[in-house]
Amino acid sequence: MKNKPRGRIKLSNKKTVIITGASRGIGNETAKAFANEGYNVLINYNNSCEEALKLKDFIVSNGGCAEIFNADVSNSGEVNHMIEFCLETFKNINVLVNNAAISQTKLFTDITQSDWDRMMDVNLKGVFNCTSSVVKHMISQKYGKIINVSSIWGMTGASCEVHYSAAKAGIIGFTKALAKELGPCNIQVNCVAPGIIRTSMISEYNRDEINELINQTPLLRLGTMKDVAYTTLFLASEKADFITGQLISPNGGFVI
Protein backbone atom coordinates (compact mmCIF):
# COMPACT_ATOMS: atom_id res chain seq x y z
CA MET A 1 0.00 0.00 0.00
CA LYS A 2 2.88 2.40 0.70
CA ASN A 3 3.73 2.46 -3.00
CA LYS A 4 0.21 3.19 -4.20
CA PRO A 5 0.13 6.38 -6.32
CA ARG A 6 -0.77 9.45 -4.28
CA GLY A 7 -3.60 11.15 -6.11
CA ARG A 8 -3.96 11.27 -9.87
CA ILE A 9 -0.94 10.57 -12.05
CA LYS A 10 -0.38 12.87 -15.00
CA LEU A 11 0.40 10.33 -17.71
CA SER A 12 2.13 11.22 -20.94
CA ASN A 13 3.26 9.44 -24.08
CA LYS A 14 6.86 10.40 -23.39
CA LYS A 15 9.63 7.98 -22.45
CA THR A 16 9.98 6.59 -18.96
CA VAL A 17 13.12 6.47 -16.82
CA ILE A 18 13.72 4.58 -13.59
CA ILE A 19 16.38 6.18 -11.40
CA THR A 20 17.51 4.21 -8.37
CA GLY A 21 18.62 6.10 -5.29
CA ALA A 22 16.91 9.18 -6.70
CA SER A 23 15.73 10.86 -3.52
CA ARG A 24 19.03 12.62 -2.78
CA GLY A 25 22.29 13.82 -4.28
CA ILE A 26 23.20 12.99 -7.87
CA GLY A 27 20.09 10.84 -8.30
CA ASN A 28 17.85 13.72 -7.26
CA GLU A 29 19.47 16.11 -9.75
CA THR A 30 19.32 13.44 -12.46
CA ALA A 31 15.61 12.95 -11.88
CA LYS A 32 15.01 16.69 -12.31
CA ALA A 33 17.05 16.74 -15.53
CA PHE A 34 15.06 13.87 -17.06
CA ALA A 35 11.75 15.37 -15.95
CA ASN A 36 12.74 18.67 -17.56
CA GLU A 37 13.22 16.77 -20.82
CA GLY A 38 9.69 15.39 -20.61
CA TYR A 39 10.38 11.91 -19.26
CA ASN A 40 8.05 10.09 -16.89
CA VAL A 41 10.27 9.57 -13.84
CA LEU A 42 10.05 6.72 -11.37
CA ILE A 43 11.91 7.85 -8.25
CA ASN A 44 13.32 4.90 -6.34
CA TYR A 45 14.28 5.35 -2.70
CA ASN A 46 15.08 3.10 0.24
CA ASN A 47 15.07 5.14 3.46
CA SER A 48 14.53 8.75 2.36
CA CYS A 49 10.77 8.83 1.88
CA GLU A 50 10.34 12.50 2.76
CA GLU A 51 13.01 13.56 0.25
CA ALA A 52 11.45 11.34 -2.43
CA LEU A 53 8.03 12.91 -1.88
CA LYS A 54 9.52 16.41 -2.06
CA LEU A 55 11.22 15.53 -5.34
CA LYS A 56 8.01 14.13 -6.79
CA ASP A 57 6.08 17.24 -5.74
CA PHE A 58 8.77 19.46 -7.26
CA ILE A 59 8.60 17.65 -10.59
CA VAL A 60 4.80 17.60 -10.71
CA SER A 61 4.50 21.26 -9.67
CA ASN A 62 6.76 22.12 -12.61
CA GLY A 63 4.55 20.28 -15.07
CA GLY A 64 6.37 16.96 -15.05
CA CYS A 65 5.26 13.41 -14.44
CA ALA A 66 6.72 11.40 -11.57
CA GLU A 67 5.98 8.72 -9.02
CA ILE A 68 7.94 7.21 -6.12
CA PHE A 69 8.66 3.62 -5.14
CA ASN A 70 10.27 2.28 -1.99
CA ALA A 71 12.62 -0.61 -2.74
CA ASP A 72 15.99 -1.84 -1.48
CA VAL A 73 17.86 -2.57 -4.71
CA SER A 74 19.73 -5.41 -3.02
CA ASN A 75 16.42 -7.25 -2.62
CA SER A 76 15.38 -8.84 -5.93
CA GLY A 77 11.76 -9.29 -4.83
CA GLU A 78 11.36 -5.61 -4.04
CA VAL A 79 13.03 -4.69 -7.32
CA ASN A 80 10.67 -6.92 -9.31
CA HIS A 81 7.68 -5.26 -7.65
CA MET A 82 9.12 -1.86 -8.55
CA ILE A 83 9.43 -2.79 -12.22
CA GLU A 84 5.87 -4.14 -12.26
CA PHE A 85 4.66 -0.93 -10.64
CA CYS A 86 6.47 1.19 -13.24
CA LEU A 87 4.91 -0.73 -16.13
CA GLU A 88 1.45 -0.51 -14.57
CA THR A 89 1.81 3.21 -13.92
CA PHE A 90 3.64 4.48 -17.01
CA LYS A 91 3.13 1.55 -19.45
CA ASN A 92 6.74 1.51 -20.61
CA ILE A 93 10.38 1.61 -19.47
CA ASN A 94 12.92 3.16 -21.81
CA VAL A 95 15.84 4.06 -19.56
CA LEU A 96 17.28 2.58 -16.38
CA VAL A 97 19.78 4.60 -14.36
CA ASN A 98 21.49 2.42 -11.76
CA ASN A 99 22.52 5.14 -9.36
CA ALA A 100 21.76 3.74 -5.87
CA ALA A 101 24.90 3.29 -3.80
CA ILE A 102 26.41 3.47 -0.36
CA SER A 103 29.92 4.52 0.62
CA GLN A 104 32.21 3.89 3.56
CA THR A 105 35.75 4.98 4.45
CA LYS A 106 37.71 2.38 6.40
CA LEU A 107 41.16 0.88 6.55
CA PHE A 108 41.15 -2.46 4.76
CA THR A 109 42.12 -4.19 8.00
CA ASP A 110 39.01 -2.73 9.67
CA ILE A 111 36.52 -3.81 7.00
CA THR A 112 34.25 -6.49 8.41
CA GLN A 113 32.51 -9.29 6.54
CA SER A 114 29.21 -7.45 6.96
CA ASP A 115 30.77 -4.20 5.65
CA TRP A 116 31.98 -6.03 2.56
CA ASP A 117 28.72 -7.90 1.98
CA ARG A 118 26.53 -4.81 2.34
CA MET A 119 28.76 -2.81 -0.03
CA MET A 120 28.57 -5.52 -2.68
CA ASP A 121 24.85 -6.12 -2.12
CA VAL A 122 23.85 -2.50 -2.71
CA ASN A 123 26.50 -1.20 -5.11
CA LEU A 124 27.00 -4.25 -7.34
CA LYS A 125 24.22 -6.76 -6.72
CA GLY A 126 21.74 -3.88 -6.85
CA VAL A 127 22.86 -3.11 -10.41
CA PHE A 128 22.41 -6.78 -11.31
CA ASN A 129 18.96 -6.98 -9.72
CA CYS A 130 17.57 -3.86 -11.40
CA THR A 131 19.08 -4.62 -14.78
CA SER A 132 17.96 -8.24 -14.70
CA SER A 133 14.38 -7.22 -13.98
CA VAL A 134 14.24 -4.43 -16.58
CA VAL A 135 16.14 -6.07 -19.41
CA LYS A 136 13.42 -8.63 -20.14
CA HIS A 137 11.08 -5.79 -21.06
CA MET A 138 13.74 -3.97 -23.08
CA ILE A 139 14.61 -7.08 -25.08
CA SER A 140 10.95 -7.61 -25.99
CA GLN A 141 10.61 -4.01 -27.20
CA LYS A 142 13.99 -4.11 -29.00
CA TYR A 143 15.06 -0.84 -27.41
CA GLY A 144 16.51 0.48 -24.17
CA LYS A 145 19.21 2.46 -22.44
CA ILE A 146 20.95 1.22 -19.30
CA ILE A 147 23.26 3.69 -17.57
CA ASN A 148 25.30 2.51 -14.62
CA VAL A 149 26.88 4.94 -12.17
CA SER A 150 30.39 3.95 -11.11
CA SER A 151 33.13 6.26 -9.77
CA ILE A 152 36.65 7.38 -10.55
CA TRP A 153 37.62 5.13 -7.63
CA GLY A 154 36.33 2.22 -9.66
CA MET A 155 38.84 3.27 -12.31
CA THR A 156 41.85 3.99 -10.09
CA GLY A 157 41.10 2.58 -6.64
CA ALA A 158 40.97 4.65 -3.47
CA SER A 159 42.93 4.17 -0.28
CA CYS A 160 40.69 3.30 2.67
CA GLU A 161 37.85 2.48 0.27
CA VAL A 162 38.84 -0.94 -1.00
CA HIS A 163 35.34 -2.45 -0.83
CA TYR A 164 33.77 0.62 -2.44
CA SER A 165 36.41 0.71 -5.18
CA ALA A 166 36.00 -3.02 -5.85
CA ALA A 167 32.22 -2.72 -6.21
CA LYS A 168 32.48 0.30 -8.50
CA ALA A 169 35.13 -1.46 -10.62
CA GLY A 170 32.75 -4.40 -10.91
CA ILE A 171 30.12 -2.09 -12.38
CA ILE A 172 32.53 -1.08 -15.14
CA GLY A 173 33.18 -4.70 -16.09
CA PHE A 174 29.47 -5.46 -15.90
CA THR A 175 28.74 -2.58 -18.27
CA LYS A 176 31.27 -3.61 -20.90
CA ALA A 177 30.23 -7.27 -20.92
CA LEU A 178 26.49 -6.58 -20.99
CA ALA A 179 26.85 -4.04 -23.80
CA LYS A 180 28.30 -6.77 -26.03
CA GLU A 181 25.48 -9.13 -25.16
CA LEU A 182 22.58 -6.69 -25.58
CA GLY A 183 23.85 -4.77 -28.61
CA PRO A 184 21.97 -7.00 -31.12
CA CYS A 185 18.75 -6.13 -29.23
CA ASN A 186 19.34 -2.38 -29.81
CA ILE A 187 20.00 -1.82 -26.11
CA GLN A 188 22.87 0.49 -25.19
CA VAL A 189 24.67 -0.06 -21.88
CA ASN A 190 27.06 2.63 -20.67
CA CYS A 191 28.75 3.76 -17.50
CA VAL A 192 29.21 7.17 -15.87
CA ALA A 193 32.11 7.48 -13.42
CA PRO A 194 31.85 10.80 -11.56
CA GLY A 195 34.92 12.48 -10.16
CA ILE A 196 34.96 14.60 -7.00
CA ILE A 197 31.43 15.99 -6.88
CA ARG A 198 29.96 18.42 -4.37
CA THR A 199 27.59 16.06 -2.52
CA SER A 200 27.13 14.94 1.07
CA MET A 201 29.75 12.24 0.42
CA ILE A 202 32.55 14.83 0.71
CA SER A 203 31.20 16.37 3.91
CA GLU A 204 33.92 14.62 5.91
CA TYR A 205 36.64 16.62 4.10
CA ASN A 206 37.85 19.87 5.68
CA ARG A 207 38.41 23.07 3.69
CA ASP A 208 42.13 22.44 3.18
CA GLU A 209 41.42 18.98 1.80
CA ILE A 210 38.75 20.36 -0.51
CA ASN A 211 41.15 23.04 -1.77
CA GLU A 212 43.80 20.39 -2.42
CA LEU A 213 41.31 18.37 -4.50
CA ILE A 214 40.43 21.50 -6.47
CA ASN A 215 44.12 22.20 -7.11
CA GLN A 216 44.56 18.63 -8.40
CA THR A 217 41.73 19.14 -10.91
CA PRO A 218 42.83 20.77 -14.20
CA LEU A 219 39.51 22.67 -14.48
CA LEU A 220 40.19 24.03 -10.96
CA ARG A 221 36.79 23.26 -9.50
CA LEU A 222 34.85 20.36 -8.08
CA GLY A 223 32.10 18.82 -10.13
CA THR A 224 28.45 19.61 -9.59
CA MET A 225 25.55 17.19 -9.51
CA LYS A 226 24.31 18.81 -12.72
CA ASP A 227 27.59 17.85 -14.43
CA VAL A 228 26.81 14.21 -13.77
CA ALA A 229 23.09 14.51 -14.50
CA TYR A 230 23.70 16.07 -17.92
CA THR A 231 26.20 13.34 -18.82
CA THR A 232 23.62 10.71 -17.93
CA LEU A 233 20.91 12.54 -19.85
CA PHE A 234 23.13 12.66 -22.93
CA LEU A 235 23.73 8.90 -22.82
CA ALA A 236 19.97 8.36 -22.61
CA SER A 237 19.31 10.54 -25.64
CA GLU A 238 19.10 9.62 -29.32
CA LYS A 239 22.36 11.53 -29.78
CA ALA A 240 24.10 8.61 -28.04
CA ASP A 241 22.46 5.80 -30.01
CA PHE A 242 25.84 4.65 -31.41
CA ILE A 243 27.56 4.70 -28.02
CA THR A 244 27.60 1.49 -25.98
CA GLY A 245 29.96 -0.27 -23.59
CA GLN A 246 31.67 3.02 -22.83
CA LEU A 247 32.91 4.63 -19.63
CA ILE A 248 32.44 8.40 -19.48
CA SER A 249 33.96 10.18 -16.50
CA PRO A 250 32.87 13.75 -15.71
CA ASN A 251 35.83 14.55 -13.45
CA GLY A 252 37.29 17.85 -14.65
CA GLY A 253 40.53 16.13 -15.65
CA PHE A 254 41.19 14.75 -12.15
CA VAL A 255 41.72 11.36 -13.83
CA ILE A 256 42.99 11.33 -17.42
Secondary structure: elements and pairs:
Blueprint: E1 16-19, H1 25-36, E2 40-45, H2 49-61, E3 65-70, H3 76-90, E4 95-98, H4 113-141, E5 144-149, H5 152-156, H6 162-182, E6 187-192, H7 207-215, H8 225-236, E7 247-248
Parallel strand pairs: 1-2, 1-4, 2-3, 4-5, 5-6, 6-7
Helix pairs in contact: 1-2, 1-8, 3-4, 4-6
Name a few traits of the molecule.
single chain, 256 residues, alpha/beta, Rossmann fold, seven-stranded parallel beta sheet, 8 helices, globular
User: Distance between the terminal alpha carbons, to the nearest Å?
Assistant: 48 Å
Assembly type:
single chain
Rg over CA atoms:
18 Å
Mean pLDDT: 95
Order of helices and strands: EHEHEHEHEHHEHHE
pLDDT < 50 runs, ≥5 residues: 4-12
Q: Order of strands across the biggest sheet?
A: 3-2-1-4-5-6-7
Total helices: the number is 8
Description:
The chain is α/β, with parallel strands linked by helices and about 260 residues long. The chain has a single domain, classed as Rossmann fold. It has 8 helices and 7 strands; from the N terminus they run βαβαβαβαβααβααβ. Strands 3-2-1-4-5-6-7 form a 7-stranded parallel β-sheet, sandwiched between helices. The longest helix is centred in the middle third of the chain and has 29 residues. The radius of gyration is 18 Å and the shape is globular.
Summary, kept brief:
With 256 residues, the protein is α/β, with parallel strands linked by helices.
